[in-house]
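Supplementary Methods. Inverse-folding protocol.

Structures were first reduced to a discrete structure-token string of length 526. This string, shown here, constituted the complete conditioning input.
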């Protein structure tokens, strides 16, 4: 008998059908993965099992141990959620309550479903955190979500999901945006816990590399339909559907062009040091060095990749180079031959149009209250006020066309777009000013493999067309190999290795770089 049996599931939001006639089963102890691009319906399908889609209309049947979850009253569903069926959400920073400690949030699950005392729940919480590999679990239980790293927050989410030993664990993109080494750790942890508890796992992901190493069976979703189901080995060896073959073939291709090595540097930094003041107690502050003694050069038309784990200092370095960091910055920075490290904010303002940023999460970096026309045109209105209203609209329309979007989308808001479209909007916002330098901070980390490839090809084409230089920050070594002319590897704020991309990534000399590459190889399709 199947643990979970989904039969002809249909999910509607108003007149729109987003999941249509989906059927699959999961046996006790089985690892089943649902894969597909953004908008394919895989997350809506997983949320439907626990009836967590707001304002959704359901039809079909979702049988869990023979009982139809779609027919249970809400009070009965509350006893299922977190106890028999638990879920790890995609983004732990938004799934965890920022006002409560990690320990309190895990203990709440135990007290609610098992009726144990607060003291016993606190003890069990520390044991769970220790089991998921969080160092100093007793201390971390007292921490708030923002005080943990991305990997630690994900482990805390796993601890919370496993608190009541569920029979089915739903993991929605559990490794998205994590470093390759942390991805491997989380994957191995899930495998270990699944074996120990004999849980069934429903993995929702766009990462086919992860699926190959984790799942027993795979279902492929496209446009709300489940178009193919097979064992993992069969799917990767003999995909039946054209869409599945397209997903398997979507991986970054090297798209760099030759750079003039004799050209004057566009950006230089000498002995850069970034220091933050960290509070210790009521009155004491201690310095924390996030970037230590870094030198770099960036030529026109060149892409410099900056890689390293979370906390290595790569994002702090990128923001400091553009004078956007809150840290205390020492050292010399020169841009287009001008010493910007010594400039006042007022003197630096005219140069801002020549240096732009594309952030990791476009949903967070695009104002939800402004239209796409206002978002993309904001920089133009500030730096080129002579354009006027009509000229501004024309420039915004051209900017959207260049990134593959229609000018008719100008009146819409960010929430009305997919993740890939929002990233294109973020690129259009940076591109519309025709900058000479763009800082790309993890611009593809949360995108599907096919959309990721589209965005990388777009960035390469724009670089060829306009001759821009890129500072490309990423934990994805495959993306860096595809895009970067040179690469810098950072650890604990220091550059431990640098050089031409192929040379560094093919023959690393430092143990840290070798470890990063080993983790990337583990999660790469062979």
């Amino acid at each position: 008998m199947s643990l979970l049996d989904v039969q002809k599931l249909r999910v509607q939001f108003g007149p729109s059908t987003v999941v249509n006639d989906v059927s699959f089963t999961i046996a006790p102890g089985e690892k089943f993965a649902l894969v597909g691009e953004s908008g394919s319906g895989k997350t809506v399908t997983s949320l439907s099992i626990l009836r967590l889609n707001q304002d959704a209309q359901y039809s079909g049947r979702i049988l869990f141990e023979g009982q139809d979850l779609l027919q249970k009253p809400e009070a009965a569903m509350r006893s299922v959620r977190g106890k028999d069926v638990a879920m790890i959400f995609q983004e732990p920073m938004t799934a965890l309550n920022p006002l409560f400690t990690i320990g309190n949030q895990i203990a709440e699950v135990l007290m609610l479903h098992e009726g144990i005392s607060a003291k016993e729940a606190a003890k069990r919480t520390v044991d769970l955190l220790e089991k998921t590999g969080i160092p100093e679990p007793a201390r971390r239980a007292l921490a708030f979500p923002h005080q943990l790293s991305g990997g630690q927050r994900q482990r805390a989410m796993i601890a919370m999901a496993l608190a009541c030993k569920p029979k089915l664990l739903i993991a929605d993109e559990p490794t998205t945006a994590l470093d390759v080494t942390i991805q491997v750790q989380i994957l191995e942890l899930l495998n270990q816990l699944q074996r120990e508890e004999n849980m069934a796992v429903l993995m929702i992901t766009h990462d086919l590399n992860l699926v190959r190493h984790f799942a027993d069976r795979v279902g492929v979703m496209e446009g709300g339909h489940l178009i193919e189901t097979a064992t993992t080995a069969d799917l990767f060896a003999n995909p039946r559907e054209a869409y599945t073959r397209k997903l398997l073939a979507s991986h970054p291709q090297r798209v760099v062009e030759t750079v003039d090595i004799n050209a004057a540097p566009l950006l230089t930094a000498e002995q850069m040091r970034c220091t933050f003041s960290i509070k210790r107690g009521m009155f004491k502050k201690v310095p924390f060095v996030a970037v230590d003694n870094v030198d770099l050069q960036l030529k026109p038309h060149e892409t410099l990749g900056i890689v390293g784990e979370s906390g290595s200092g790569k994002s702090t370095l990128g923001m400091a180079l553009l004078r956007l960091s809150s840290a205390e910055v020492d050292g010399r920075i020169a841009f287009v031959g001008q010493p910007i490290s010594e400039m006042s904010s007022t003197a630096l303002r005219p140069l801002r149009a020549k240096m732009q940023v594309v952030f990791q999460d476009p949903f967070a970096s695009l104002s939800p209250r402004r239209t796409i026309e206002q978002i993309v045109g904001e920089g133009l209105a500030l730096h080129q006020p002579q354009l006027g209203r009509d000229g501004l609209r024309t420039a915004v329309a051209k900017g959207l066309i260049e990134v593959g979007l229609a000018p008719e989308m100008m009146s819409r808001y960010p929430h009305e777009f997919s993740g890939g479209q929002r990233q294109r909007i973020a690129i259009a916002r940076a591109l519309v000013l025709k900058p000479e330098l763009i800082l790309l901070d993890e611009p593809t980390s949360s995108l599907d493999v096919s959309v990721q490839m589209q965005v990388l090809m777009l960035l390469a084409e724009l670089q060829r067309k306009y001759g821009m230089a890129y500072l490309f920050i990423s934990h994805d070594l495959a993306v860096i190999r595809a895009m970067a002319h040179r690469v810098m590897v950072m650890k604990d704020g220091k550059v431990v290795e640098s050089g031409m991309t192929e040379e560094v990534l093919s023959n690393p000399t430092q143990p840290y770089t070798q470890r990063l590459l080993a983790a990337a190889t583990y999660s790469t399709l062979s």
